[in-house]
Design goal:
This protein has 191 residues and is an alpha+beta fold. The strands form 5 sheets. Strands 10-11-17-13-14 form a 5-stranded antiparallel sheet, with no helix packed on it. Strands 9-12-16-15 form a 4-stranded antiparallel sheet, with no helix packed on it. A hairpin with a 3-residue loop joins strand 15 and strand 16. Helix 1 runs parallel beside helix 2. It starts with a strand and ends with a strand.
Length: 191
């Protein structure tokens, strides 16, 4: 179960703790009242909400009504100070634009499509970057937050090398050069 705390959605279980500042809702036409209310409350507390492809408009239960769902969605999208966003066609560029100004733990340049996972294990930040394309990727990865010194680890060989930032921005952001062959991955682990 998730809880709302300080404009974040917190998943805190025995194996893993995750914090989310953005809800990215895939095309959903029908939604339960309780799920829509949770999204609405998260938005009211300052979370970013992005609807894609289809906005919720129908109620999936007897606890609410279609009008209740539509009212919440309309209010979120029309708010003048903290509007939710609707991205009709969620292309990589459209989602990149929608996420501007949103706090993120990892940032990539707009023209670079990489997958990543970020976990904190025994107090260490562990990032896994993956290139699922058939082309090599060479880019700059920006890590946000207090990370400390890091090392690269190749999951295919187990070899580790020191990770030297190529730039530091605002004291809380470190940038690293990353090169990935097609269908390859690389860990970045804080010490």
């Amino acid at each position: 179960k998730c809880r709302l705390e300080d404009n974040r959605l917190i998943l805190d279980n025995q194996l893993n703790r995750e914090e989310f500042t953005t809800i990215l809702l895939p095309g959903v036409k029908v939604i339960s009242t309780s799920n829509m209310q949770r999204i609405y409350q998260a938005w009211k507390q300052g979370m970013h909400v992005i609807f894609t492809t289809q906005k919720p408009c129908l109620c999936a239960d007897l606890q609410g009504s279609n009008q209740t769902i539509q009212r919440m969605v309309d209010e979120m999208l029309s708010d003048s100070t903290h509007p939710a966003q609707y991205v009709a066609e969620p292309t990589p560029n459209a989602l990149y634009d929608a996420l501007q100004g949103v706090e993120r733990d990892v940032e990539f340049p707009q023209d670079c499509a990489l997958n990543y996972i970020h976990k904190i294990i025994d107090g260490k930040h562990v990032y896994l970057f993956g290139n699922i394309d058939n082309e090599e990727k060479e880019t700059i990865v920006t890590l946000n937050g207090e990370i400390g010194n890091c090392q690269w680890m190749d999951p295919h060989t187990g070899q580790t090398t020191p990770a030297v930032p190529c730039n530091q921005v605002d004291g809380q952001k470190r940038q690293y050069a990353l090169h990935l062959a097609p269908a390859r991955g690389m860990f970045l682990i804080s010490k």
